[in-house]
Amino acid sequence: MSDATDYDLSMMLRELVMESNRFLEIFSAAHELHPTDMTALNLIMTAPMTPGTLARALNLSASATTSVLDRLERAGHVVRERAPDDRRRVELRVLTAATELAAHFFAPLARGYAAAWGAMTAEERAVVARFLAATIEATSEVRASVS
C-alpha cells in the first residue's frame, strides 16, 4: 500500500484499535473484568503508581477509582501496599499471577505479530517503529489538548 493517504492510514489505525479492543474484550469477559479495569491494569503494569495517579490517568473520581481497584484486588490482579519510604503513601502493584495469566493469554497474539513482522527488513521495521512512535505522540498531544 505505497500510495496510502492520511485517510487510509487513519482508517487502518482505527481498524487496529477496534481489533485490539475486541481481543481485550475476550480477556476481560473470561476474567470478569470491566473495560476500565483492563485499562487500569495495563496502566499499573506499565508504571508504578498511586491510586491518585491512576485516577488522573483514567480521568475518574477517587471513589470510582477505589471501585476499580477493589474489583482488581478481589480478582487477584492487584494489591495496594504502603510505600516503604513513606507509610502514608499507597502504591499499586500487579501480582505475579496476573502477569503470568496475561502473558499466557497474549502469547498467541505475540506469536502472530512476530510472524506478521518476520518478513520485514530492518529498514522496514525502522519505518514502522518511527510511524508508530509519531502516531502515539500525536495522539497523546491531541488527547492532552482536549481533556
Query: What is the chain-wise order of helices and strands?
Result: HHHHEEHH
Q: What would the average pLDDT be, to the nearest integer?
A: 93
| Estimated share of beta-strand residues | 5-15%
Tally of alpha and pi helices: 6
Low-confidence parts, pLDDT < 50 over ≥5 residues?
none
Shape: globular
Structural class: mainly alpha
Major sheet summary line: 2 strands, antiparallel
Question: In which order are the strands of the major sheet placed?
Answer: 1-2
Number of strands: 2
- Portion in helices: over 70%
What Rg do the Cα atoms give? Answer: 18 Å
Between the first and last Cα atoms, what is the distance in angstroms? 34 Å
Write the SSE topology.
Elements: H1 6-30, H2 35-46, H3 51-58, H4 62-74, E1 78-83, E2 86-94, H5 96-117, H6 122-146
Antiparallel strand pairs: 1-2
Q: Features of this protein?
A:
single chain, 147 residues, mainly alpha, two-stranded antiparallel ribbon, 6 helices, 2 strands, 10% strand, globular
Q: What features would you describe in this structure?
A:
The chain is mainly α. The chain has helices spanning 6-30, 35-46, 51-58, 62-74, 96-117, 122-146; strands at 78-83, 86-94. It has a two-stranded antiparallel ribbon with strand order 1-2. Helix 3 (51-58) packs across helix 4.
Provide a quick synopsis of the model.
The chain is mainly alpha-helical and 147 residues long. It contains 6 helices and 2 strands, in the order ααααββαα. It has a two-stranded antiparallel ribbon with strand order 1-2.
